[in-house]
Design a protein that fits this description.
Blueprint: E1 2-7, E2 12-19, H1 21-35, H2 51-58, H3 64-82, E3 93-98, E4 105-112, E5 126-127, H4 136-149, E6 152-155, E7 166-175, E8 178-191, E9 213-219, E10 233-247, H5 253-259, H6 265-298, H7 306-326, H8 331-338, H9 342-369, H10 376-389, H11 394-400, H12 403-424, E11 427-428
Parallel strand pairs: 5-11
Antiparallel strand pairs: 1-2, 2-4, 3-4, 6-10, 7-8, 7-10, 9-10
Helix pairs in contact: 1-3, 4-6, 5-6, 6-9, 6-12, 7-9, 9-12, 10-11
Length: 429
Amino acid sequence: MSLKVEKLEKNMAKLTIEASAEDFEKAIEAAYHKNKGKMSVPGFRKGKVPRAMIEKMYGTGVFYEDAANALIPEAYEKELSENKELEVVSQPKIDVVQIEKGKPFIFTAEVAVKPEIELGKYKGVKVEKEDMEVTDEEIMKEIDKERESNARTINVEDRAVQDKDMTIIDFEGFIDGVAFEGGKGENHPLTIGSGAFIPGFEEQLIGAELNKETEVKVAFPEEYQAKELAGKDAMFKVTVKEIKEKELPEVDDEFAAEVSEFDTLEEYKADIKTKLTDKKTADAKAKKEDAVIEAIIKDSNMEIPDPMLDTQTKQMAQDYAGRLQQQGLSLEQYFQFTGMDMNKFMEQMRPGALKKIQSRLVLEAVVKAEDIKVSDEEFDAELAKMAEMYQMEKEKLQEMIGDYEKEQISEDIAIQKAVEFVVSNAKEK
């Protein structure tokens, strides 16, 4: 086999791969043995028809397609594995150039190759300083969340409807004095302010009294799903049959003891502050990393080939679909819930895919520029983390992974060291 590489514009390349006539003949013979049981020739039992008879009856090229489909991936992978300097970053676009019995089999593969990068400033990058102070208001916000989850619901009979109340209502809607289909409901639960009804409906129930009919006037939105109602004015007769409100627990030592492991409110608040501080610190670290890498990307030059971006976008889409599946949701169901389609979904993934490619490229350039190495101890530590995550012995994991996987793990460790290097060298404004 032989390989010829032609460089194209925008980090694309055309690979011309030639397989010998002998290799092509072997592929045809394999295709014949694979398919001979499916082919009928008068006078022969299925599976016993000589190849020459099949080719005479169906044409010389009867096995070419299967032979090519078997030979192309084998030849392509072989040439890539033997040419390590050629870093292909997309799926190949295949075109058969020559396919003829007794002659070499020739095809081309148009691919994207890893772009060269002109690394910009990566030391002393200036980024905004993140505020990590935890305020009393933030602590109270966390306490209020806990109060909400521990609130009890009580019936209200001595006042009118207020915002946030949980109500049970009967209603009937009219357009030009005529009741319309689907506009009537009985014993319907509605939380005021939830936005569950037409805009303006819930607000007009504030002040409504129990068991007294209230008129609510609204206009259906122009884009309302029921076309016969869209854009029309309507009047609803509404009777509030029940009013309920949440009774929040008092914020005191007793509350703290019930919702936490602490005996006093002060201890509970101190624990919340510690947790919020830890979260803010982790968030600030992540934001700083993103800001530093973004600044390096902006100061660097690289041209990302479209097929490379397409490949990364598809990979991220597959990963997202996999996570949805783990939650028991198919991609089709996700589209139904969000109103998306595959094209919109892929467009949404594209900016993230571009950022991921650019980030990796600049960090690889930093690894090279700073000659960052990965020690055996660092590799073993990472392997131990992976083994713990997969709940298996480190030695067993080491036996399972091959040279390619080990190389990938080492590259990822080096990339993380590059992140730590550029962040530690960054300056906060």
